[in-house]
Task: inverse folding
């Protein structure tokens, strides 16, 4: 029973952490290096994350400077940023890429809030699916005689507590992200 609960706890925690990473890639009015984590470029025939071929720095609140370690891929980086869903326009001077982060329009802010809510709902669904899997495993263990009916009830209560905690964490992350996006 403890193994089932521990597995559920680990999987739920991963769902919450995954949401945090996804939120990091959501653009707000401020520049962050996390915005570029999902961008991959073609490097020696392999799709490679941008942060593995360049230094990404944020010298000002609305400016990102990307300095590739290999100058020959600067055009490739520029193309990857233009093709990304970030809607940014990079400026390439041959050595570094500078990206000015324009302030978000009210319409774009609302779109990003809507996207954040969808991401949060997917995370909630994942947590609930983990709860269902754990409860199914507990019921199977009880049916097979590995645990008693009391242990089954205790295990289900424990899983429900974990579910509630993780859903609360998701809601808190969503609220913080919404506040960050809507901040002028």
Result:
């Amino acid at each position: 029973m403890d193994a089932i609960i521990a597995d559920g706890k680990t999987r739920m925690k991963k769902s919450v952490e995954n949401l945090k990473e996804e939120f990091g890639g959501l653009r707000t009015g401020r520049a962050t290096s996390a915005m570029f984590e999902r961008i991959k470029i073609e490097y020696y025939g392999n799709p490679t994350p941008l942060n593995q071929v360049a230094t990404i720095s944020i010298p000002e609140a609305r400016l990102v400077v990307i300095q590739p370690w290999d100058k020959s891929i600067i055009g490739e980086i520029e193309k990857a940023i233009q093709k990304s869903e970030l809607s940014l326009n990079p400026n390439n001077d041959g050595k570094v890429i500078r990206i000015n982060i324009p302030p978000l329009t009210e319409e774009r802010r609302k779109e990003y809030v809507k996207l954040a809510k969808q991401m949060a709902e997917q995370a909630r669904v994942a947590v609930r699916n983990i709860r269902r899997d754990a409860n199914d495993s507990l019921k199977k263990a009880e049916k097979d005689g590995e645990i008693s009916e009391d242990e089954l009830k205790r295990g289900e209560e424990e899983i429900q507590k974990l579910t509630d905690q993780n859903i609360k964490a998701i809601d808190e992350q969503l609220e913080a992200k919404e506040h960050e996006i809507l901040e002028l």
